[in-house]
Amino acid sequence: MTNARVRPTSRISFRSVKTLAGLALAASAVTAAIAQTPQPQSPVTDALLSLPDAPGFSSSDAVTGESSSAEGLADYEHGFIPAPKLHVKLPTRRDMTILPGQIAPQLDSHDKVVLGLKESVTVFSVIGWATSAGYSHLTNGSPNYGTDKAAFGERLGGTALRNVSESIFSVSLFAPLLHEDPRYYKMGNGNNFFKRVVYAATRPIITKTDSGNSTVNLSLLSGNLFGAALTNAYYPQPNRGFSQTMQTFGTSVGGSAIGFVVTEFLDDALVAAHLKKAD
Q1: pLDDT greater than 70 at residue 261
Q2: Contacts of 16 (CB under 8 A, 6+ apart)
Q3: How far is CA 211 from CA 61, 96, 147, 154, in A?
Q4: Is the Cβ–Cβ distance between 136 and 147 less than 8 Å?
Q5: Greatest pairwise CA separation for the chain in angstroms
């Protein structure tokens, strides 16, 4: 009689989901109360600062528009009050991207909380979940759920939880605490191709402060580290522990670098494929 090999599995528990939701709510409550007080900037090594930097930083207060009330007055004259128009806008990667020459609105703590929540559910993010889960499924890599159909669903769910938690930790929690700007400043055309690649790939390590100075991207690195640590609550047993957590952290930082490179060149690729008009 042969012994059947049992594959260790671990499914995402409701307790893990509640834990993540609680952390997200706690992050929102904490960051909403943070005052924008100036903090001393941490020194950055010469090696990091010698890497390509983004185009000049510029910011302004968010501009609010007022709509004309002429139509509303006409409606009132006819004896009824019109219902407010609903404007539904899906979150996009553009919310986290500043284009060359574009004025960057100043972000407060509330703005960063909202950006972190929005970034975690963009189409760009969902594609990233599916790509990461698909690659892991094909290579039978971490998290080691196996290679059957159920395993792919578990991988997709685990990847989504990890990326959402990393986004909330990085953008909604640590960016306000550390007074860092979580947005990506695109270098764009007119710059050397390899310089753009190096610039985009190093954004997980270098970012801007709220005042526009270059600094170590502690918000993203800390968020990815905390998100990786949280996987111990729902990853399979073989993928838990310190060494596996650090491996997950490294994978997350690498994934962030790939995401920035894609953001830098995506519009160029769409124009070359005649799927988008050149700006």
Answers
A1: yes
A2: 161, 233, 234
A3: 13, 17, 48, 42
A4: no
A5: 88
Q: Kindly report, residue by residue over 34-85, the tens digit of the pLDDT.
A: 434 444 444 444 555 566 666 665 555 433 334 444 444 444 444 555 544 4
pLDDT one-digit tens code per residue, 83-98: 444 444 566 777 889 9
CB 184 within 8 A of CB 95: no
Q: Which residue has the tokens 């670098």?
A: 257
Tell me the whole-structure pTM to 2 decimals: 0.70
Centre a 10 Å sphere on the Cβ of residue 4 and count the other Cβ atoms it contains: 6
For residue 207, give the nearest of 91, 73, 70, 49 by alpha carbon: 49
Q: Any residues with CB less than 8 A from the CB of 63 and at least 6 apart, and which?
A: 105
More confident residue, 122 or 108: 108
Cβ atoms < 10 Å from Cβ of 46: 7
Non-local CB neighbours of 171 within 8 Å, separated by 6+ positions = 96, 112, 113, 115, 116, 119, 182, 219, 223
Span 17-22, average pLDDT: 46
List alpha helices for 33-121, DSSP H.
46-49, 70-77, 109-119
List, in sequence order, every residue forming a beta bridge with 60; answer none if it has no partner: 105
Compute CA distances 66 → 60, 63, 69, 183, whole Å: 18, 10, 9, 27
